[in-house]
Structure formats: structure tokens, C-alpha cells
Amino acid sequence: MTRQAAATVAREAKRHKAFDDSRFIGLVLDGTALARSHQKVCDLCRPYRNKKKEILGYHHRLVLASVAGTGLTLPLDVEPYGPGDSEDNAARRLLPRVVGNLGRRFADYVVADGEFARAPFLHEANALGLHVVVRLKGHLPELFAAAQKRFRHQPPHQVFRYGADRVEIWDADDFDPWDTLRWETVRVIRYRQYKPDGTVCEAYWLTDFPRCRVSRRTLFLMAKSRWEIENQGFNDAKNRHGFEHLCHHQRHSLLAVWLLTCLALTIERLYRVRYLHRGTHPILPAIALWQILWLSLSRPVPHDSS
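^ thats the sequence. predicted structure below, dont judge the formating
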């Protein structure tokens, strides 16, 4: 129910033109660790180790899905994973549920880090009607080496300003897919971002967006939207809203706390950044809102007419 509430809020925000300044609406997925403990307390506790593979303690891991690329970072849903599970598997459970709750026409693309550059995840995103923008790293050695070799001795295809930064970008859409990827070709961009303090950031990204639909600059902005989930998602939730604090190590309790935090962040940002209409209901005191929420979470009891 909380998941559906968050999706309903996001759909209403779109209907009230909260995203009209953005041509494309994106979903960003990423994993994080939180709530460390010295001992294993529940079945979702996962060990974390040092370089010698010695167990230092336990923590929880989850994948978060959020709206991105619109000027509004709206956390929507989480998928925890426990021992024997993986970030990729959790994301593949999470993405279909989020798209199902939002509707297939809500978002245009999904952006994610290089851990998600796997054929099954890319195929599933395409099957859900989404284009993909995923970081390209050394885990795809042949494609990564081919992109490096081609762009290394070429001048940038475009240079532009991104705030106070200078950005150079390279772009090619005729790279060969790897064996398990069912794409005809792969589009790869490389960008170098020069900051005023002399820092240079470089990254490679792969996508199935065609050039005729998405320009290099727009693709660069989509790739940068991946950091929204770090800065305005995990950091904000952990440092300001107690996302790491656990009242009880119980599966349903953990999930309820995480989902309610996401819903609260989404509503707060819509009111603060985009005015979301309150509706026709009267202003209620906090205790009344708590009672309504508590009653809505309970099971309906059939009326006894005997």
C-alpha cells in the first residue's frame, strides 16, 4: 500500500505538470548499505568483510528506485536483499514493480551504475518500454577497450559549458554488442568534465538511445542524473531523516520504515520544490492524520449484518 501511495503521488505530480520542464523522465536505480551491527540479528543482515575476507560485522543492503532527471528526486520504492542475493537480482525485482505501479508511459529511460550493465537487466528494461543509460567500466573489457581506443586520438565531437565546468564529449553509435546482448549496435559516449579547481572527471556510458532522438548534451545530462540518487537520495535520507536507524530487526518493520521515509521525502519535495495542490479536504491535525494512516493500513473487516 505504501508503494502504491508513492506511485500515486508521482503520477499526480506528473498530471499536475511538475515535470513539464523536462523532455524526458528517468528512473535511477542504485544500491546502498546501511544499519551496521556487530552481530547478525535478522535474515536480512549481510556480513561485510575486510581485504582478508574476515567478517567485521553485519549490515543491510537494498536497491532504491527514484525519479531523476527532472529537477525533482523522488524516492519511490526499495528492494532489500539478504544472504545469497545480489544487487542485480534485487534491481530486476524492483524495476518491473516500479514500472507496474507508475504505468509504462510514465518514464522514458532508466539510468544506473556499471554494476547493472548486464544483458538480462538491459533486456528487461527494454521489455518494460525503457531505454537504458548505464556506466561503462572495465567489467565489459572488450567494449571498454574498443571505446578507449577509438576516442583516445580523436578530438571531442562537442564542447559546452555545464555551469562553471567545461565539458568535452565523444560519441559513437556503431560499437558491436557483446555476445549475450540482443542489440544491433551499442552507442557509447565519453565525457571529460573540467572543474574550476583543475579537477578532471572522465566517464564512459553506454545506451540504446538513437542519435536522432537524444543529443550528446542531453545524454550527458541523463548520465549525470545518476548522482541525484546519491546526493539527494541516500545522503539526504541517511543524514537528515534517519534512514539508517532501525527500531526493530524484523523484515516487515524494516521495509515499512524505508518505504515511509521514501514517501515522506517525495511529498516534502513536491510541496517545497513544486507546489502540489492539497485538494478539497480540510486541514487535519497531526493526530488525525496518524489515525487515518493507521486505519488505512489495517485489513478491512466485513460488516456483520446478522
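Helices lie at 2-15, 87-102, 119-127, 141-152, 216-224, 228-240, 251-273, 286-296.
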